[in-house]
Amino acid sequence: xxxxxxxxxxxxxxxxxxxxxxxxxxxxxxxxxxxxxxxxxxxxxxxxxxxxxxxxxxxxxxxxxxxxxxxxxxxxxxxxxxxxxxxxxxxxxxxxxxxxxxxxxxxxxxxxxxxxxxxxxxxxxxxxxxxxxxxxxxxxxxxxxxxxxxxxxxxxxxxxxxxxxxxxxxxxxxxxxxxxxxxxxxxxxxxxxxxxxxxxxxxxxxxxxxxxxxxxxxxxxxxxxxxxxxxxxxxxxxxxxxxxxxxxxxxxxxxxxxxxxxx
Length: 263
Fold this sequence. Notes:
Helix content is 36%, strand content 21%. It has a domain at 83-251: 3-Layer(aba) Sandwich (Rossmann fold). Strands 3-2-1-6-10-12-11 form a 7-stranded mixed β-sheet, sandwiched between helices. The chain has a 3-stranded mixed β-sheet with strand order 5-4-7, with no helix packed on it. By secondary structure, it is an alpha/beta fold. It contains 8 helices and 12 strands. The relative contact order is 0.11.
C-alpha cells in the first residue's frame, strides 16, 4: 500500500522539523499563553502601553497578537540588556517603536549616550505609516532610510540586497525585512515574490566592520538564517528558538592586542 502525499509530508516534517508539527498541532499553545502573560506583565511594568496602544495601525492590536507581544518583550529585553549605541533594523513596524523606547530608557539612565536606531525599509509608503505611529518624544532616536531592494547573485546563490545602506557600524541588528514582495529584478529568470522565502545578504556587507559583541536577531526567516550561517565568515555564538521562531548570532571573536613584532 502506497502512502498518501499528506502522510509522506507528515513523515518528512517529523524527521526534519518536529517543532513545526508541534506548533501546527497546537501542543505549544500553553507555552505561548504563558509567555504572552509574561510579556504583557513585562511591557506593562515598563509603561510601554502608555506610549502605544496598538501597533502601527489601529487594526494591529498587539494585545490580541500573542506572538507579537512576545517578540516586542524579547526585543526590548535584548536592547535593554545589551545597551547598544547604534541599532540597525531591516524592515520597520512596532519593533521600531519598542527599540526606540528602549533607547530612550538607556539614555535616561546614562547607560548609553546619544543612542540611535537606523531603519532600512524598501517601502516609502510603509515608512510614512510607521513614522506617524512613533510618539513625538521617541522620534529623535530614529532615522528612516528608504532603500529599494533588488535581486542579486552571491556566490552562485540568489539573494536580495538594498541599494543604499546607512554609513554606520551597528552594535545590534534586527532583521525582519524586506518582504520578498518588495524585491524587484530577477536573476536568470528567478525573481522574488510573496511565495518565496526572503534571503537578505546586507548583513554580509557590514560583517567586516562589526565589533566583538555585535548581536544579530532574525525574526523567523529560516532560509535566511541558513544563508547567513553558511556565508558569515567570523566566529559567532548561534542560537535558534524553534518554538518562538527567532535566531541570534553574537560575534565572539577575541581582539588581538599583541603588538606587531619588530623586523
